[in-house]
Every structure is written in C-alpha cells, then in structure tokens.
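name: query_chain
kind: protein
chains: 1
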Amino acid sequence: MREIMKFYIDGQWVGPKGSRVCDVINPATEGVAGRMVMGEKEDVDCAVAAAWRAFDSYSRTSMEERLRLLQRIDACFQARIPDLASAITEEMGCPAWLVEKAQIPISAAHIKIAIEALKSYRFEENRGTTLIRREPIGVCGLITPWNWPVALIFTKVLPAIATGCTLVLKPSEYAPFSASITAEIMDAAGVPPGVFNLVNGDGPTVGAALSGHPDVDMLSITGSVRAGVDVARNAAATVKRVHQELGGKSPNIILADADLEKSVTSGVSFMMLNSGQSCSAPSRMLAPRSRMAEVIAIARSVAEATTVGPPDSGAYVGPVVNARQWDRVQGLIRKGIEEGATLVAGGPGRPAGLERGYYVRPTVFADVTNDMTIAREEIFGPVLVIIGYDDVEDAIRIANDTNYGLAAYVHAGSTEKAAAVGSRIRAGQVYLNGDIDLLDPYIPFGGFKHSGNGREWGDFGFEAFLEVKSYLGRNPPQAG
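structure:
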C-alpha cells in the first residue's frame, strides 16, 4: 500500500500542518490502494512563501540554464517511466495498454516540445527605440485533474519552469501517486529549492487557499466548469491572472458524403477511449437523418464490440475514476432514457461479469435532441449521443448550440468541404476527416465559451506565464 504523508516544499519533503488523511481507492477493484495526507491553508502558505523566496533568483536565470534544467527533467522522467505507468494504472484503473500507448508518450511529448519551444522562443524584441521583453509573471498556482494526470501536470509545470516562474502544484486528490513521483523527478533533476512545490489536498481547502492567495500571481486550472468558476471567484479579489482549460461537449459532424464506416467507427472508438474521460472527446455525433439508420447500425456494432475490463486484461475500456463519477454517469444514462432517447447500446449498470470496480457499459443513444440533458451536460464517461440534422446549416446550428467550445470534428467527402464547415464552428480545435488522432501536442490547446480561456502546449503554453514589459529608450535611435 502506498502512503503519501509529506509534501514537497522548498526542495524537501516536509510534514503537514494538519492531520486529515484520506484513502486512495483503486477504481478497478474498489479496494484501498493507499493513503494520503490532506493539505491545509497553512501548508499552502508555506509553499507559496518558498516559491516567493526562490522567484527573485530563478526569474533571473538564463534561457540556457533553464534549457539544461528541462533536459535533466527529461532524463529523470525517462528513468521513472515504469513507476509512473504503475501509478497511473493503480490510481485511475487505466488500461495498461493505454498507459503505454498514450498516457506516458503524451507526457514525454510535452517535455520534448517544451524543450524545443524554449530553444526558439523570443523573450524580447525591438520596436523602434523600445525594447519589449516577456518576463516571468511570478509565483504560479497550478491545479491539475486526474484523467491524464502526468500529461496535464507537465502542460503547466514545464512552461512555468521554462519561462522562469516558480510554482505550487495541487494535483488531483484522486491521482496523487503519479504526482508524488513527478515531484521526485523534479528533485532528482536538481530543480532549485522553492521553484517546484507540491501540496496535496482537495479543492475547497488547498485549491481555494491557492487561488485566493495574495502572493500567487497567476492561477492555472484544468478541471470542470464548476471548479473553474470557483477558482475565478476566489482569485478575483487579488486580481491575479486566471488561465482555465475546462470542459467540453464536442460535436462530431458526419456529413452525408463522408465515409460512414470509417468516420462513425473512429468517432465511437475515440469517445470510449480513457473511459470517456477526456474533455475533448467527440461526445455529440451529428448525423444526417437521411443516413441515420446506417449510422446507428455502425455505432451499435462498434459499441457492442468494445471490451471493458481490468487494467491488465487488454480491454479497451477500464473503469471511471471513482464511485461519485460512476453514480453521476449512471444517473445521466437513466436521464437519457427518461427523456425519450433511444438506447442503442449499453445502458445502466455494470458490464456482465464485472461485479466490482467502477465500470460503465459503453453506451450509445440515438433519437437525441440537443435540448436533452445528455446533449447539454458533459457526462465524462463512455456515453455517446447521436443527434440527427436536416442539412448542413442545421448541423452547424446544432454544433454551436452549446455552452462549450473546446473541440469539434467534421467528416466529409473532401477535406475542403470539411474545412468549410469547420470554419463556422466555435471551438478551439477542429479535426478534419480521416482517423481521429488522440492528441497533437504541438497545437495550441484550449477552447471558447465555458471551455475556458487561454491556450496550452508548446510555445502557446508559455504566454500565460509571461508578462510584457516595455523599456522605452532602451535602444538608441538608428542613424539616418
């Protein structure tokens, strides 16, 4: 059994100020996988103070120094891949194949991309006699979720370190094992004391203390809309920058001339990946009414062939993260039935033969209208809704009729036609035709509307951690 009874603050593991301890549950078995001490406001105060002490010197390090540090982090990460893989599987119940093929490679890619971005990033430029510099914003509070635990830590921690900021990380209390190993990686890489700090805990305590702290200059959160709103509200009094990557209810538009077998199959498969626990998942499939019977038949076949099981079973889908999420998904499945949607595959309850663990049956609904609860709310489970449309204009209207705007998917007979439709969708990323790639970590990631603000990944991810300063008269006028 794993035990996490200390926090990483100011370059060392320190005991907590409080005594609250919670169990960490393995969602594949419902058994206790470990215990974790929960942070208090006083722990956050200590971590923020350490980050402030470190900021003056670290913010003045050169790009070359920070580049070497990122390269050391990369080397230490590579050495701990087996440990991280084991931790993610245990804390999330994530299928071992998905950890190997996606969770770990995407995390590794974010390190490589941060290194590449830092090598070429322009921190300063001249405009006439003025020097314009992008300088580190200060102490950053980072709040990360459990669904892609290491990858989403790195999308925030690495840009902060690369740009000269110091930070305090609050990882999800549901995924503390991989976060603790990440802190060990930072320590082994020689991250200066106070630059990286980790305090475990829950949102109402540690998250609130961090977002409202007067000495935190910037807060970055990946999480639900509710959590994002709470953070923004807590941060408002201190006028700090708030960067949010929140939820999604992404449309997947299948145009009438698309390759149905390919587009519907990839759409269903991607929806079920990671147990449907991805904010950019294509959760609303928009299909032409003229071809709806074909779409439903393909979707049913794919969903019924989707295997569910323990992490080491080779199954495509594992459990959702905890009992509360399982209850929420089950409630929304029942709500879909109550509101008149047609259950095409799956449904309430656990899959046959899985009596323990938070497993959900891969579920597909048809005859869904965009005003139904299952079409409006982010379910965050392996549940797909199929909505019919009359023509392209109707499809675009339905696609944009949502509070979210993180991603969109368009399948058509040609890329040009897909792009023409995609240009009218209000979303941060639009995937055009072909197989749906899991993620492209080189692109800016973020959304419109309630999906958040700002962008992450690569050089776009640096912007949230930088302030722009103008030095007027820094450059002498050029002789004419």
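note: The longest strand covers residues 31-37.
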